[in-house]
Amino acid sequence: MTPEGHPSHAEAGSGLLYGVSAYLIWGFFPVYFKAFGAIPALQIVSHRIVWSVVFLLLLSFRPGRRDDIRRAMSDRRSLLILVTTAILIATNWLVFIIAVGHAQVLQSSLGYFITPFVSVLLGLVFLKERLRRLQLVSLLLAATGVVTLTLRYGSIPWSALTLAITFGSYGLLRKVVRTDALAGLTVETILLAPLAGAYLLFAAWRGEGAFLAGDLKLNLLLLSAGVVTAVPLLLFAAAARRLRLATIGFLQYITPTLHFLLAVMVYGEPFSSAHLTSFMFIWAGLLCYSWDAWRALSAQRLRKGVRTT
Questions:
Q1: Using an 8 Å Cβ cutoff, are 131 and 139 in contact?
Q2: Contact in structure between 97 and 45 (CB atoms under 8 Å)
Q3: Which of 8, 137, 214, 263 has a CB 3.0–4.6 Å from the CB of 106, allowing a cystine?
Q4: pTM for the complete prediction?
């Protein structure tokens, strides 16, 4: 960091590389999870949890890392929050995999596009953050987009809303818990592992387990689930330490944009005029949201400059 607290050019460059890499990996998740074929979503999520525990514990062999995990699990408040975030992230993973498996990648794109608005709304309700005028406009535009799609199709886009609400809530709670990204995710997966492992054993006992069933490609895909889960999160954590929050805010649109392009251009999911209208409202809301974030950051930097002169 520079003396003023801003990232140096070298830090910003490496941070940008880490951030773009993380969001690109998340953006291509539909390709990875579609490769599992007809394996039940719950079984995929269970493997993701179990192999994540193995991979994360290997990364946590350093004494300092083990201490972080012990502190998180011994502090009642942190543990309660992490139990909640574990449920939220497992739900998010499950709904996403179901959406991908049922040719609803467009819904996942919609969900992650509206996640920033959910975060703003949660900040208003639970952290008593005040809404600036453009933030209010962006929320109204996003809500209009969702309502438009609901009215045109006569059904609520549950997958998109569940993805946005679970991930937005996850972000809110991880913001207030006193643990870092690696230790937090390790504890979350440790908490989920007994149920996930029991389900996998039950599926194997019934002869329905996909792992070690004879398909080498599927075995490798399932084994890699832990790495695929942890690596982008670690890249994101490294980026967050090196970049301004506004930069991270702009990078987060990479993932839903890639989901959108994959859904429409690769997987040929229906994209009607109702979808176009809905996304136009949401993109307009994101434009207002981003412009407001940039203005707020500029004003903050100007105030700091005035105080130091």
A1: yes
A2: yes
A3: 263
A4: 0.87
Q: Total domain count for the chain?
A: 1
* Domain assignment of residue 252, given as a range: 9-308
pLDDT, tens only, 27-60: 999 999 999 988 999 999 999 999 999 999 888 8
Among all chains, which residue has been given the structure tokens 């839903």? 256
Does residue 295 lie in a domain region? yes
Tell whether the torsion through CA atoms of 64, 68, 70 and 75 is positive or negative. positive
CB count in 10 Å sphere of residue 118: 22
Q: Is 29 helix (H, G, I), strand (E, B) or coil?
A: helix
Q: Cα separation of 73 and 43, whole Å?
A: 26
Rounded-to-integer distance, Cα 25 and Cα 255, Å: 8
Nearest to 114 by CA among 161, 152, 159: 161
Query: Is residue 250 domain-resident?
Result: yes
Q: What is the rounded CA–CA span in Å between residue 158 and residue 104?
A: 11
Q: Does residue 4 fall inside a structural domain?
A: no
Backbone phi, then psi, for 142, in 5-degree steps?
A: -65, -45
Q: What's the pLDDT tens digit per position in 65-110?
A: 788 888 888 989 999 999 999 999 999 999 999 999 999 999 999 9
| Interatomic CA distance for residues 70 and 66, integer angstroms | 6
- Alpha helices per DSSP H over 4-102: 9-27, 29-34, 41-59, 63-74, 76-101
